[in-house]
Amino acid sequence: MKCFIGQEDFQIQEPTVVTIGKFDGRHRGHQKLLGAMLKWKQEWGYKTAVFTFDMAPAAYIQGTPQKVITTNQERRNNMEKMGIDYLVEYPFKKEVAHLSAEEFLKAILLGQMHAKAIVVGTDCGFGYQRKGDARLLERLKEELGYELEVIEKEQDPGQHRDISSTYVKEELDRGNMEKVCELLGEPYAIHGLVVHGNHVGGPVLGFPTANVIPPPEKYLPPFGVYVSRILVDKTYYGGITNIGKKPTVTGDNPVGVETFVFGLDKNLYGKQIEVQLLNFERPEKKFDSLEQLKSQLEKDKEYGMAYLSFSP
Predict the structure, then answer these.
(1) Is residue 145 exposed (0-12), middle (13-18) or buried (19+ Cβ within 10 Å)?
(2) DSSP bridge pairs for 115
(3) CA distances from 135 to 35, 54, 139, 147, 248 (A)
(4) How many CB atoms are closer than 10 A to CB 199?
């Protein structure tokens, strides 16, 4: 996949089928949209191209960071996993914010991205004050010479509700990881580099852990202990993961993702890992002693193994 990150003067030479959006989470609604693009590629030979911004427009306009289910790097990984050919992360700034919908369509989607077909959801919005929508794209398609496909929202049949990033965040706030997995079509995941922690887990508690510090923009579920699945060197392992600030351990600890990996006895420092959260076991708690914490960790391990049907 070819990425144009923070570039305004990029140019795609090949005919493309294009879509636009934030794609936060790559939930089942996003997958429906991206799947339609892949059909255009299969039937017409167009390269698939996704347009998004390098930051959420709301973050620029409001001047405050926006929490996201998937970071920019995770979004790139997701798009590559889907088989997308081009990803444009356009720099969002004042001039872009004031670009009219027609100017955006002509200059960027048709001009720079060489769009021959455009695929959007029914609720798409683009250009100044999001005045560009599916109706505008329909009105201009013959004049400007592109084809258009408008995709209906994917629904959660159990709740009769559209699947959206907002819906996913609501379930994350509840710690309902099974529902989150259902909406995403895959487990919620945190990616990161394994760093040194307090060195309490292994030497003191007998539970050596892999510590990841999530980026500040990452939307996290409630602090607590989760049953997890961990991808290390292309192999999955079961485990238990604590998200939080380790209140039993003294000091001002940053928010971290600390994972005890079942059946893995090797140094993970400096490795990139993926931690998938499958089930919320319990909230984070401050224990009166490390001995009490160790006793609870034994119970957490048993719970995790039973959930994953591991043998001790």
Answers:
(1) exposed
(2) 16
(3) 22, 26, 6, 13, 56
(4) 11
Residue 185: pLDDT over 70: yes
Could you give the CA distance from residue 167 to residue 29 in angstroms, rounded to a whole number?
11
Q: What is the mean pLDDT of the chain?
A: 92
- Euclidean distance between the first and final Cα of the chain, in Å? 42
β-partners of residue 208 are none
Interatomic CA distance for residues 193 and 210, integer angstroms: 9
pLDDT at 290: 84
* Locus of tokens 């720099």: 91
CB 271 within 8 A of CB 232: yes
The 3-state DSSP class for residue 179 equals helix
Taking a C-beta distance cutoff of 8 angstroms, is the pair 220, 255 a contact? yes
CB-hemisphere CA count at 13 Å for 27?
A: 25
122 residue type, one letter: T
Within 8 A by CB and 6+ apart from 1, the residues are 76, 79, 80, 84, 85, 86, 87
pLDDT digits (tens, 9 = 90+) for 235-291: 999 999 999 987 777 667 789 999 999 998 888 999 999 999 999 999 998 888 888
What are the beta bridge partners of residue 13?
A: none
Distance (Å, whole) CA 281 – CA 296: 12
d(CA 120, CA 147): 11
Which pair of tokens denotes residue 268?
């993970």
d(CA 183, CA 190): 17
Rounded distance, CA 6 to CA 53, Å? 8
Q: How far apart are CA 241 and CA 281, in angstroms?
A: 10
pLDDT of residue 22: 92
CA geometry: angle at 69 spanning 63 and 75, to 5°? Answer: 95
For 108, the 3-state DSSP assignment is: helix
